[in-house]
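The records we work with from here on pair a chain with its fold. A complete example follows; check for yourself that the lines match position by position.
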Amino acid sequence: MRFASIRVITGDVARLVDFYERATGVRATWANDVFAELRTPGATLAIADTRTVPLFAPDSARPADNHSVITEFLVDDVDRVHQNLAGFVTDFVTEPTTMPWGNRSLLFRDPDGNLVNFFTPVTPEAKAKSTR
């Protein structure tokens, strides 16, 4: 098995795609007006409109209602990324902070309120894990 993607359901695909393109520097691939993907070497972030939910099961997902998942991106320098996002991201939850497991993390919310973590491994142990 290989982890392929995480899908975010939203009421405004264009707005959320624009946000993630600007935040990550990754250009989205649009399948149509209700579905786009930002593909990275590790996984894909899929962004889909609420109109796609009934294709799976009616009322199985609700936009802007996530309270347990954090979408994470490995970046080269989280402090530099934080500087670049200042003035663009409006809801920083945590400024760059070194976590007990060795990653320096920046936690913020996307326009739908979903948590996003940009992180950089800084300890030897964390760096070793990130290269696997």
In short: The first strand starts at residue 5 and ends at 10. The chain has four helices and eight strands. Helices lie at 13-24, 53-56, 78-85, 124-130.
